[in-house]
């Protein structure tokens, strides 16, 4: 067997090490046991990476749109000449601020570095922002305000050592699964460890919580102001630390006292039970080792930066920072959210943690780059950037590794803006995305497994992503495309990189450049990584920064000396007067829209959408709401609903999971035009941003939910893609050897057999056609069998309760249908009950809901361990354990 290539998972900021073997049968992916972040474990998304390495849909060649609007394949040279020339003309005519870049936390550090250098040093604008604006920018701004530098002061080991882990606005179980497993296992080892989850929703994460505080959305600042007051009132203050190493305490406390000076006042503002909140405050007060980990429920808010600082204030007051097992912990979302920050990926930053608004820092960077210019004012932040495109102030944009037509707020406006932009360049790995549809120039990038460089995870650990596959078609590294533009503009010296290690070396040198107490002291320093040869770089083991010149010396815990990176080296308490979300109420839209992630999908599904294993957990876009709200909106579990805001609307399947509080609605972010007719939630989100960070309020838009009436519901499974034209509503997922379409219609169909042939594209009238129709009941089903193998099937009914897709999926795995299968198709259910395994719960081992319920009810599996022993479910990545527990609990309530 070939030697494994050690690389890093391209999904979440946990940054797990992955060991890959390329064999004749394909790519085998395992956890890398030597990687300190995951010690060999992978969640289902990591484990299913092999299934996403398929040629389907890849963008392979550069293309330019012609006058008639068609994309024409061109040579790289032609594409790059075109881009370099067109950008140059716009810059010469309208100035450097008329062009912009919109990049991504999914770029490698090397790509990101070159992008920033090109734009900030050689175009001379800071109009380069990143999707991290939508993700981490409130944390960055909060860190800068409190610490003077964007530093995450906690490691995963700290997390395991903490006696209290507070998870705020984080569905860790689904979004950072391996980190969550580390917390769960630490808690098993050390039962004194407590976990508190602060989230308006009950989630898979609350499963491990000793206490869940379902606060009213957007009220976190009240909660942490209340905590600050409480700690002060109870004398839980590290006076020596506060006096010596911080400033601004009195003002922050006064604001906290005035706004949430008692537990009662805080509980009222947050809509929480007073005794539960008091319990949390007491727990926090008496526990020395506390980590407050936070994610998008904190950052993605019009008060996001204040939320972050209200958390940090409590850690400063108690001196619980800079010591093992303590600190505020921003969980980064994307694989390289942190690396992007190191090279200054945001429009208001410079490379190597230097400040754009500091003249001395600008000079340092310009000197180091020997560049003709340096951006001297912050560029446009993501939402403003697309507004400027809409207003034609920005005339060209280069979008790289992000899908803004799906992921920005008010996403229909983004469509409009791109539609009228003079020049849209898109670098992507996929040919058809909602954003590539607007490209004038398409540039094919290397994907995970092909590209080569570094990423930095949530705990500041730099790891290598290594290539193990050849470049397909003419795909090239993103850094290369950018450097080629620099060369075409006459900067061959500055952009003459031959390989990524040269870029990394330059980046490392810049982190050390001027990094002295007198000049520009920064914690980020990679001095110990300077001068690596290609071979050293290739062998680079995961390493946390800072990396001192002498790498054998252990690095002290960050902030353990009480020194921060503000001018006086003291940390800042920031007063945080609480405020409600900008659009807190709207009588026409009485509910609140919260958006976020599901377990098995990644963002706009360009990669997870390719994996049958990942697709089966949640197969459709959905809207989840409280059963009573569902009743008053006139929608029903399993039916369809229109979800509408002042900005846009979508149609999704209704769920009443019981996880949401009253007046709150949850819609996942993943679906888009490639996977559904009408389910892009970005179009609904209000484009309000935090005034400091510019991060959008993705978790809070006033919304209305109403029935979406249809005459019939149906689904089809087919080995070939189906066109889905003239169908009111549809969504699709990838199955093992078929595609599955769910749909619904408003048209009255007079002749179902004819319509079914049209939907399934059946032309061969001599085909073997199993068909059943009950006209009075509006039921219709048909299967098309070719050479005894099922080719496609379709089921229709006036109600959404259609036969089991799991059972039918199983039929597609068979080379020939048996007689019982054919009868099953005719009667619309499997004759063998065991054939209907139900919707997938455990994606690792493909274990369905019905199989699990059967094991609970009839085989005495009444805990997750027993289920694991019998069915293997939950024994690999463990992400489904909360769902297994819920099934066990639900079964216990059933009448015997
Ligand atoms: N499976 C999966 N994992 C992922 C990703 C993915 O696409 N899929 N994406 C990655 C990325 S880029 C990111 S940024 C992370 C995001 O990781 P998370 O932040 O954990 O995920 P989200 O689902 O966006 O939102 C987190 C929680 O915030 C809660 N929330 C909403 N409003 C409030 C509020 O006002 N206060 C509080 N306290 N909580 C609130 C929501 O109910 C939700 O449960 O996940 C990463 N991991
Ligand atoms: N409503 C709502 N919207 C949100 C959020 C939310 O919680 N709610 N969360 C926000 C957050 S935190 C994030 S991080 C964003 C994520 O949103 P996006 O960044 O828009 O989502 P992705 O699907 O990850 O887009 C990545 C794109 O880059 C391509 N790609 C992958 N690898 C490469 C590569 O190496 N090079 C190039 N050139 N292309 C590549 C992929 O095919 C894909 O098209 O969404 C944000 N939007
Ligand atoms: S936890 Fe995150 S980094 Fe680790 S395998 Fe899962 S998706 Fe990949
Ligand atoms: Mo993110």
From TrEMBL:
Entry-linked InterPro entries: Asp_de-COase-like_dom_sf, BFD-like_2Fe2S-bd_dom, BFD-like_2Fe2S-bd_dom_sf, CT_Nitrate-R-NapA-like, MoPterin_dinucl-bd_dom, Mopterin_OxRdtase, Mopterin_OxRdtase_4Fe-4S_dom, MopterinOxRdtase_cofactor_BS
One protein family per Pfam: Molydop_binding
Cofactors: Mo-bis(molybdopterin guanine dinucleotide); [4Fe-4S] cluster
Chain ranges of the 4Fe-4S Mo/W bis-MGD-type domain: 2-57
Record's keyword terms, sorted: 4Fe-4S, Iron, Iron-sulfur, Metal-binding, Molybdenum, Nitrate assimilation, Oxidoreductase
Protein family: Belongs to the prokaryotic molybdopterin-containing oxidoreductase family. NasA/NapA/NarB subfamily.
SMART domains for the chain: Molybdop_Fe4S4 (SM00926)
Protein name stated in the entry: Molybdopterin-dependent oxidoreductase
Organism per entry: Sinimarinibacterium thermocellulolyticum
